[in-house]
Fold this protein.
Amino acid sequence: MRVIRAAQRSDSDLVSEVAVCIRSGGTVIFPTETVYGIGCDPDNEQAIRAVYEAKGRSIHKPLALHVADAAQAEPFIGELTECARRAMHELWPGPVALIVRRHASRYARAACDLSTISLRCPDHDLCRSLLRGAGPLAATSANISGSAPFTGDTDNLDALPQASLAIFAGPTPLRVESTIVDCTGNAPVIVREGAISSPVIREKLGTPGRLR
């Protein structure tokens, strides 16, 4: 695995490296505001399989699509409820993944053929620069399944899953996984509590969002 330390390279150089890797079917470990992720081209089934194998992730657990903004997510969306639109406006970019209806012709493999897709727009400048330059990434947390998520608090990268390229940018700001909110209905349903608390979700979305 090739490791690039972000402090030693310009953002433009990093974006170019990641774009080349992704377009050639490789996998990349990258920082977000929560934990590090491992991702690939969402349309490359071989690369998606490599992410699952590197992490030891169950093939029945979908990957989240990481995007730089709502415009990047649009081609993958089948339907947006008013709840989802409000969540994108109020909570993005930020440490939250939004579950919406998936476009029937996109992302089937990474979504495990579910009718929904989990969308993540990180509040991390370098990450969003990488996503703008390399395109959206089908990704999951960069750790071996069953072990703690990698937050960059140590520069010992031996515990990371294998990838074509790893961008190391030091500790992540929040050091906790993102909150997951199902926005397929009229009201938000909090699937997993994380960096954004339930009260904040309720306040931002103006609804009594409940835990699943």
Q: What stands out?
A: The first helix runs from residue 11 to 23. The chain has a mean pLDDT of 95. The domain at 2-211 is CATH 3.90.870.10 (DHBP synthase).
